[in-house]
# Entry
Amino acid sequence: MATTQPAVKFTYNDYQTAPADTRYELLDGDLLMVPAPNLKHQEVQGQLQIELGLFLRKQQLGRLFAAPCDVILSDNDVVQPDLLFVSHEREHLLSSSQNVRGAPDLVIEVLSPSTAEKDRGYKRTLYAKHGVAEYWLVDPVAETIQIQRQRAGALTPTDTFGRGDTLRSPELPGLELKLDDIFSI
# Structure
């Protein structure tokens, strides 16, 4: 008679012992290696980081971080979003100076073939559960950005922007992001 082995669930302490030269995420206690993103992904992420970084610096709204940056949502959930924003009101999440402990105001995931399903599914649910106010799903192939907002404990799509559009974000008042500038690379 075959017996099943209980599933081993890792914790943040286990996660900290993973090799530093490889990117990992901890999702529901499962340690997952995150492959390097393709070049289009990196170019789009870089453009977003430049544009958002300049805007946030000028407006002095908070701080922007890029992967790899650990966001500890629970002892069993540690993610590395492509980009994340923490407002001045929530700077207490940065008190360890090592990572973000809690839900950022804004999380941005640039979709890759290897991560798109996880970003649209499990991570979206995880971000909603922990109180991320706004979530952007950036599709470098379709050249779109979908904004999802927190509503009654769920992240709900509110707007989708594409080439020719100017993205405006409820979380970042005054932001006007021309998507032609983001995807014209």
About this structure: The longest strand covers residues 154-162. The mean pLDDT is 90. The chain has one domain: 38-183. The CA atoms of residues 134 and 170 lie 8 Å apart.
